[in-house]
Every structure is written in C-alpha cells, then in structure tokens.
Amino acid sequence: MATAHQPVMRDEVIRLVDPRPGDFIVDSTAGGGGYSLAFAAKVGPQGLVLALDYDRRAVDRLNKLHQEQGLENLLMAEANFRYLEEAVKSHCPEFWGKAAGIVFDLGLSSDQLQDENLAMSFQSDGALNMNIANQGPNAYDLINFRTEKELADIFFRFGEERNSRRIARAIKEARQKKKIRTAAELARIVSFVQPPSRRLHPATRVFQALRIAVNDELGNLSAALAPAVRCLRPGGVIAVVSYHSLEDRIVKIFFRQKSRISDGPEPALRLLTKKPLVPAAAEIKNNPRARSAKLRAAIRIINTHD
Ligand SMILES: C[S@@+](CC[C@H](N)C(=O)[O-])C[C@H]1O[C@@H](n2cnc3c(N)ncnc32)[C@H](O)[C@@H]1O
C-alpha cells in the first residue's frame, strides 16, 4: 500500500545536508520514505542511503518500493535509532564515521496515525496499543495497570498536562468497573473531566504523553544523538525535525553543549541553525501536520578516532 505520509520540511533538510554524488547518508526515521528517496536521488548510484525505522510495516513498504524501482543505493533496516551505532556497524561497517548526513524526522508518520492496529488517535475505535516496534508494554498495559500516581506523572511529564492528577483518578475509577480497552473509551473518560478548550481536543495531551511513554521516544532521542555525531565525517551534517517542545529541548541542549566543546574527547559541532527553522506558511496550509515542526541542524567540525 502506498504511503499516506507527506514529508515535512524535506527541501530545507536536503538543502542543509547538501548531499553530493557518492555520499553516505543515514535516514534514521524512514517512515514513508520521503527523505530517503530524495537523498537516494542526490547521492546517485555511487552513494548509499541507509534508511532505518523501528516500524516493520514502514520497512516492508519501502522494501517493496525498492524492489519495484530497483533502487540499488537504498538499504532498509528495521532498527530503533537508539541503536544507530549497531545498525550502521552491522549493515555498512565501512561507512562508520564517514556519513555526510544523518537525519531524524521524529514522531509519527501519517500511515501510523491512520493505522487502526496502533490506535494512535483519540478518534480510533481500535484497541489501545500505540506500540510501534511491538516490544514492551503498550498503551493498554499502562492505562490499566500503572498506578494512579505513575499515570499522573506520565501525563504531566510527557504531555505537560495540568490536569494530570484528576485525569489519572478518573482512569483509575473507570478501570475498577471494567478495563479500558479502546482509544475512544479513553478519550471519553478524559473528555469528561477536562474543561473544554477551543484549540485542542481534551485528550490531545494525554494521547501524546502515552505515545511518548510507550515508545520511550525521549529516551531513544537522547541515546541516539551522540552516536549520530560520531558516525558523521568532519563536515557531515546532523539534522533533526521535531514536533513538540520536549523533543526540541533535547536537541537544542545537545547541539548547544556539543558546539561549545572544542577539544574534548567527543566531536564538536557548529550550529547551522541558531534558531530552529519552521515550515513556510504554504507548507503548513498544504500539510497541517507540519505546523509544529522545528528543524535544527549542525555540522561536525572535529575528527576523533573511534
Ligand atoms: C515523521 S515519520 C518520518 C517520515 C519520513 N521522513 C518521510 O518523509 O516519509 C517518523 C518515522 O520515524 C520512525 N521512528 C520514530 N522513532 C524511531 C526510533 N526510535 N527508531 C526508528 N524509527 C523511529 C517512526 O516509526 C516513523 O515511521
């Protein structure tokens, strides 16, 4: 099945990475393949794009495209970018430390948002899940078996939800009567205790928080950035598109710290974006999912031996 995902800020990412024929690029979040295919076209037959995703469905879809179109310079791998070093070293060890670009386009693809098996949306009647890599606990486990306090902490930390305690209590009371099975059921419980808002669906923050917790999104990102920099050659570019302030903060702080170290053991970066770039108004109009995107990029300036 074709992807429903429209790449966000693709032109800006390509411009910052500026790939040349023969380059090696890692697309850490292949998704619908929007970035990977554009990079593959730029690096040409002598180059290579390693495209990672921890969603097997995304990898299968791209593999199919790969076979149909004979894209010899695109290599797909099912992997969590948290283990980027292992993924690069096992699939193309000769390119470790030689990447011209490593990109992250975080969060969810439209394919995942629409996938009833994942039940990401508060409108979904699918069983509570959200677990993209299908490993560890899913949203059903968290909602029905975590303590009230643990749930409140998840909603507050990952959703910045001010009513976290009240929502966690309502969930506890509801699940004592019967287990909460679907995304739509959870959304109804949350909506019942939330004051109405004109901007957001009352369950938006709770769903964001659950998704981040189930997939350990912030842990993955924090673990991936240092290895990504080590995988770049001097002059290589790391570019990250994030979609909420928690992710953007991790990237901003990491880039800032690395751009200040000039002679430490780790490679140092020079910022290419002092402030994050945001999508043009025309892109947001055409693809409203782009509206919260922030793009930060930096260039590796020191070579270390690792
Ligand atoms: C916004 S989409 C990427 C879209 C892609 N740039 C495109 O143009 O089609 C995000 C993708 O990153 C993947 N992803 C998120 N976290 C990941 C992780 N820790 N490891 C590997 N893939 C991840 C998701 O499964 C999803 O397919």
TrEMBL record:
Keywords: Cytoplasm, Methyltransferase, rRNA processing, S-adenosyl-L-methionine, Transferase. It comes from the Bacteria. It catalyses: cytidine(1402) in 16S rRNA + S-adenosyl-L-methionine = N(4)-methylcytidine(1402) in 16S rRNA + S-adenosyl-L-homocysteine + H(+). InterPro entries: RsmH, SAM-dep_MeTrfase_MraW_recog, SAM-dependent_MTases_sf. GO terms for molecular function: rRNA (cytosine-N4-)-methyltransferase activity. The keyword rRNA processing applies. Its main location: cytoplasm. S-adenosyl-L-methionine binds at residues 33-35, 53, 81, 105, 112. Specifically methylates the N4 position of cytidine in position 1402 (C1402) of 16S rRNA. Belongs to the methyltransferase superfamily. RsmH family. This is Ribosomal RNA small subunit methyltransferase H. It comes from Candidatus Falkowbacteria bacterium CG23_combo_of_CG06-09_8_20_14_all_49_15. The lineage of its organism: Bacteria, Candidatus Falkowiibacteriota.
